Structures are given as structure tokens and as C-alpha cells.
Amino acid sequence: MKVEGQNVLIEANASMNGGDGPQSYCQNSFFQKAGLEAMKEIMQKEIRDKFDVGKPSSNESLTIKIADFGCSTGPNTFHAVQIILEAIQQKLQSETINSQEPEYQVFFNDLVTNDFNTLFASLPPKRQYHAAAVPGSFHNVVLPKSSIHFAYSAFSLNWLSKLPLEIIDKNSPAWNEGMIHYSSKQKDVLGAYAVQFANDFESFLCARKQELVSGGLVSVLVSGVPNGTCFSETSTGKLYEIFGSCFVDMANKGLIHKDKVDSFNLPVYFPSPKEIKAVVEKNGYFNIEKMEIPPNPTYQTGVPDFKKHAVSSRAVYEGILCQHFGSEFVDELFKLFRKKVDETEPAIFLNSGKKNLVVLFVLLKLKPSPH
């Protein structure tokens, strides 16, 4: 697609770094793991309270189907599945729904570019479920209608399905010249991101409405900001500003073209609880059973480890950077990013660190279909 004669990346269809090497997502998804651990008890309690598979007859075989939307390459998805599985088993045992042990099927969904080979090569050998891959965008229906009992997605909904066209259009007031992300100072850019997130989340909910059984549950874990806070005001937002400055520095040195920087934006958004609630209520298919912010795992021990974050960002963003800029500049970019983070005074992060990203846990239940 072209905007003002430039070749620009619109579709945000890059996956995390595959394999299990030092720059892979497998080795650099510790923040996501910490977020999952922070909400483990909450999610298990809510599943025990809210999960319902109906009342099958005594001789009816019970198969419970779970799907992880945006599973990536592991190992976090396996840990999440085990948490969900244990809670469902506890629920079924407490209600003695069926004397026969149910069978479990788990569907691992992600984009077709995801490294499913690494994912399935590392499946737990003693797992209690049958596993299947389901490639495709979770903004669309990817599973049979009324087939899933429990849908799960962790940190995937932060990714936009595509960039808002306005932010890469020179004639738009939302043109994001010289920046790679939104800021509280750029209201039009921030608004374009927010609208795209709302549209994507709406698509996600509509697709899950088709796939879930009546009364099925959706558990969402998302990085976000407290109500009334903009991402760029947070300590992590400061880190993104440093990352963006690396692109500008490289353009000023002639290592990459300025037009390439102007037409590139990170397709990620960090919503507030208020925004999440508004989309769910507008969508109308689900009840919000629980919305909670567990203790933030990243900041529990004092100064955040932003140096580690700088390293892990390559596993997340390298794919989409290579799509837009080519692979030849990536090493230099992340070397510069790490150097700038190392040289940044901790106080700069801590001054903004009074406002931090939060991990938002949301549990939704599909409303009964009207007769």
C-alpha cells in the first residue's frame, strides 16, 4: 500500500522471534511470564466460580476445549494452559459433574508466520491434553462455531491488526513525523491509535462470540495504563522515547532514510480499564465477570530492570523492523538502544515511574443467545 508515494508497512503481521536462541521470544518473555504469575490465583478462582460446561448425561463423554489466541512460541502458553486446566479440573471435581475424567483439547492460535515448529517441539511431554495448531488472525473466526469452552489471550491484544492510515499520511493532522509511537502531546496520533485498538478488540470479541459455547468464558491479560494516564507518561513510555530517538539518530547519520522512519510506527497500544470496559459494553455479547489489576510484577522489587527490557525488545520487534527497514540495520539499532539505556540516569525512569504500566485481568462470559 502507498501513502504519498512512499512504500509503508500497514499490516502488523510480524511474529515474535522464533527458535530458542538468545534473541528468541522463548528466552526473552520474562515480563509476560511475571504477568501471568501475578494473575494466577485470580484467574483460577474466577474459573472455579464461573466455569460451566452444562449437565451432560452420565454416559456422555465430556470433552473440554480451550484455545490460546496469540500463543507465540512458548513456554508461557503451556504454563497458562496448565493454570486453566487445573482450575477447570477443580471445578468439575467439586461439582462431581461426571464420574468419567473429561478429555481436554487445546488449540494454539497465532499468525501463520508464528514458529509453530518450536512451539510443538517444546510441548510438555506429560501434558493432559490433545494439542493442535490453528494458524490465522484472531480478529477473525478461526475455529468452528460453538466449539470452545474457554478462550484465553495474554498480551496479544496490545498488538494492532494494522496501523491507522492517518499516522503515515503527510496530509493528515495525525501524521506522526519523526516518531515511532504515540505520545500524550500528539492528541490526533493518540486518538488514531485508540480508535484502531477499539476496532480490533471489537473484532476479537465478535469472533469469539461465534466460537464459544453458550456461557463460555474469555480470559484476557493485557498491558495497560491506569485510567487518566497516558502511556508516554509512564516509565516504559520513556523507554519507548529512547528507542524512537535511535531511529532518528540513525537517519541523521544516513544509515536509514528519514522517509522510512516517518512511515514506521510500532503497532502496539496500551489501553486503560475504562477503554476495555467501553468496548465490551458497546459490543454487547459478553458480561464482564471480573476486571482487576493484580500487583504489577515488574515493579515489585524497586528499580525496574530496563536494561533487560532493552534486550527483550529485540525478540518482540525484530520481525516487524526487518519487514519495514530490512535486516541489515537491526544489529546497529539495538546496539545503540542498549547503549542509550545504559547511559540514561535511573532517576529519569523513576521520576516517571510513579506512573507505571499495569497488568489488567479481564474475565468475560458469553451472554445466552436470545430465543
From TrEMBL:
InterPro entries: MeTrfase_7, MeTrfase_capping, SAM-dependent_MTases_sf. GO terms for biological process: methylation. Coiled coil: none annotated. Pfam families: Methyltransf_7. Keywords: Magnesium, Metal-binding, Methyltransferase, Transferase. GO terms for molecular function: metal ion binding; methyltransferase activity. Gene3D superfamilies: Methyltransferase, alpha-helical capping domain (1.10.1200.270), Vaccinia Virus protein VP39 (3.40.50.150). It comes from the Eukaryota. This is SAM dependent carboxyl methyltransferase. The lineage of its organism: Eukaryota, Viridiplantae, Streptophyta, Embryophyta, Tracheophyta.
